[in-house]
Design brief:
about 0% strand; 1 helix; mainly alpha; about 35 residues; rod-shaped
């Protein structure tokens, strides 16, 4: 039971991490304007 909750925590963290990486890539490729026009 504790193993499962740990696995869920880890998968949640990985999901957040992947979302952050995707966001950074979008910013770098200029999809999201940074306000420096």
């Amino acid at each position: 039971e504790s193993d499962l909750s740990l696995e869920m925590k880890i998968s949640d963290q990985i999901k957040v991490l992947l979302e952050n990486i995707a966001e950074i890539k979008e910013v770098r490729s200029g999809v999201i304007p940074l306000g420096t026009d």
